[in-house]
Structure formats: C-alpha cells, structure tokens
Specification:
This protein is α+β, with helices and mostly antiparallel strands. The chain has one domain (about 1-110): GTP cyclohydrolase I, C-terminal domain/NADPH-dependent 7-cyano-7-deazaguanine reductase, N-terminal domain (GTP Cyclohydrolase I, domain 2, 2-Layer Sandwich), CATH 3.30.1130.10. It contains 4 helices and 4 strands. The chain has helices spanning about 10-15, 30-35, 45-60, 65-80; strands at about 1-5, 20-25, 85-90, 100-110. Strands 1-2-3-4 form a 4-stranded antiparallel β-sheet. Helix 3 (about 45-60) packs across helix 4 (about 65-80). The protein is elongated and about 50 Å long. The two termini are about 25 Å apart. The relative contact order is 0.22.
Length: about 110
C-alpha cells in the first residue's frame, strides 16, 4: 500500500509530507473460507486496507514505530480472526543527508499480546 502522509521527526516532514509504503501480513485459520468461498468467513483485506489508510492519515507521528503500533492496535481492535499480524512501514527518500531509497520498521503481534 502506498500513502502520502505527514509523519516524521522533523517539523518540515509534518508540513511537506512524504511517501510511505505499508505491507501487511496476517495469519488466520483459512480452512473455513477455503471451503465456503465466502468473504464473511474470511479476514477482509479491504477492511484492513481502510484501517491502515485511516491510521496513516489520522495522526501525525514522529516515528515509524508509533505508526506501526497504532496500525496493529487498530487492526486487532476492529477485526476478528487475526492470529498474528506483521506490519512493515517504510518512508521513501527520507531526509537523512544523502541518497537513501527508504528506511523502515517491521513489527509483529500475536492475538492477545
């Protein structure tokens, strides 16, 4: 997923914004939706996308770690059936004084943690 958002340690980043890439991996029991072929039996990817989109646009965070935590919190609060979720958040072309394609973090959480 790609978003233009206003996160960053420096005030300029929170004004000008930057491009962010977000990858989500969810582990769940797939046996029921595999048999039924019904979206109601599966973890809904579109719902997960909307949750992530809302978190990317909602609050300005200084750190990628904070963004990752907020996304995981929101996913577990609003969705059922996730056994484990792993989120990767990357900022493209960060202002670090040289040519850097991206910086990022990866966070995982199991249900109940």
């Amino acid at each position: 997923m790609e978003f233009y958002a206003f996160h960053g340690h420096y005030q300029e980043e929170q004004i000008v914004g930057n491009r962010f890439l977000v990858d989500l991996e969810m582990e769940t029991d797939l046996s029921t939706p595999a048999r039924s072929d019904k979206l109601d039996d599966a973890v809904n990817y579109q719902q997960a996308y909307q949750i992530i989109k809302n978190e990317m646009r909602r609050t300005k965070s200084k750190l990628l770690e904070n963004i990752g935590k907020r996304i995981l919190d929101a996913l577990y609060a609003d969705m059922e059936g996730i056994e484990k979720a792993t989120i990767r958040v990357r900022k493209l072309n960060p202002p670090m004084g040289g040519p850097i394609k991206s910086v990022g973090i990866t966070m995982s959480r199991k249900q109940g943690e």
